[in-house]
Design goal:
The protein is of the alpha/beta class. It is 39% helix and 26% strand. The protein is built from ten helices and eleven strands. Strand 2 and strand 3 form a beta hairpin.
């Protein structure tokens, strides 16, 4: 082998090494890591019934908890739910504190800049909730009123676009704080998903809450993963396809939400 050939081989080898070192951290195979670990870490806001909450025995319950357990069962691993809030879901995911994010995790473009979404499997719409005595029947009635919302949610996004000038959004770190603000009179109304909003109406009949306004469009939720986690995303898409077709998602949605699951779109 002459000197020029050896030099060319060295250059090619060095270039290959540099390319391998330059691969982003997100290119690591999280799916294999989960299988080797024997446990999947799923982030979820546990203060959002009926999606995710602590039952009377202080055990995780809700529609998203049931789906997360199904994910772990199909993977053949244990499930560990990591408590999050709406505001810290993206940071927990991108920094690797969790493998995936759930909890009616709505799909919208701003989030998709930072993470990847699986195929959708559930749906909610955003609403404005308020006591019956509060006069609200249209967006114009919100002028001069304060509306609480959980920071970082899809509802925050649609409220920002829909509210008229003179209405004020008051942001809180989670839904429990945003709900408490309405209950205490700190705000006039609460922007939330229709499903947890309806749950609040039923849970606190003495407070006489009611849904005043529905805010289009319908939004869909799915499982969030880190950008670059293509193997885990592919597995989750296969999981969603299988359990959508065998009726599990429709069954879980109707059990916990009390309504029929609309046909999910293709992402």
């Amino acid at each position: 082998m002459n000197r020029a050939t050896r030099m060319l081989g060295w250059i090619v080898g060095a270039a290959g090494l540099l390319m391998s070192l330059a691969q982003p951290a997100s290119a690591q195979n999280t799916l294999d890591e989960i299988l080797k670990r024997g446990k999947i870490l799923i982030g979820m806001d546990m203060a959002a019934p009926p999606f995710a909450y602590q039952d009377e025995k202080q055990q995780p319950a809700g529609s998203e908890v049931e789906v997360a357990r199904l994910i772990a069962k199909d993977l053949g691993v244990e499930l560990e739910i990591v408590q999050t809030s709406a505001a810290n879901r993206i940071p927990y995911l991108v920094t690797g504190r969790v493998d995936a994010m759930m909890g009616a995790f709505s799909i919208f473009p701003d989030r998709a800049k930072a993470i990847w979404f699986s195929s959708p499997y559930g749906s909610v719409t955003s609403v404005v909730l308020a006591p019956q005595a509060t006069s609200i029947s249209s967006f114009s009635d919100l002028v001069g009123k304060k509306i609480s919302v959980s920071r970082g949610t899809y509802t925050e996004q649609v409220l920002m676009a829909a509210l008229p000038q003179g209405a004020q959004i008051v942001r809180f770190d989670d839904d429990s704080q945003a709900t408490a603000a309405m209950a205490s009179g700190q705000v006039d109304a609460y922007g939330v998903g229709n499903v947890p909003g309806s749950a609040l109406v039923k849970r606190f009949p003495e407070r006489k809450y009611e849904i005043k306004i529905s805010i289009p469009p319908r939004n869909w939720y799915s499982v969030g993963v880190r950008r670059g986690d293509s193997d885990l995303l592919q597995w989750l898409n296969s999981f969603v396809f299988f359990h959508r077709e065998n009726g599990d998602f429709a069954r879980i949605y109707e059990k916990w939400i009390g309504d029929k699951l609309p046909p999910p779109p293709v992402l």
